[in-house]
Design a protein that fits this description.
Non-ribosomal Peptide Synthetase Peptidyl Carrier Protein, Chain A, about 80 residues, single chain, mainly alpha
Length: about 80
């Protein structure tokens, strides 16, 4: 898993986001495009792309896009163990 690829997919799922504007340190919940529907879309994208189930608690606990990536990466590692 590569953070840059995760960010590209994250950006692609957000409405009205210019590609290349999301950084690892972006506080995604502060984005104008972020809402409860985007949370569900992100959960579905992570499930489809990585086979990992994010929970509402995971989204709540993360602050940055990098934090989200770390959660997905850790869950993927556990699944593959």
């Amino acid at each position: 898993m590569i953070l840059a690829d995760f960010i590209k997919m994250f950006e692609a799922e957000l409405a009205d986001i210019i590609p290349g504007t999301i950084l690892p340190e972006t506080a995604y919940k502060q984005l104008d495009a972020w809402n409860s529907m985007q949370a569900l879309i992100l959960i579905a994208m992570v499930d489809a792309e990585y086979g990992v189930t994010l929970t509402a608690e995971n989204l709540h606990d993360c602050i940055t896009v990098s934090d989200l990536f770390s959660v997905v990466q850790n869950k993927k590692t556990v699944l593959n163990s």
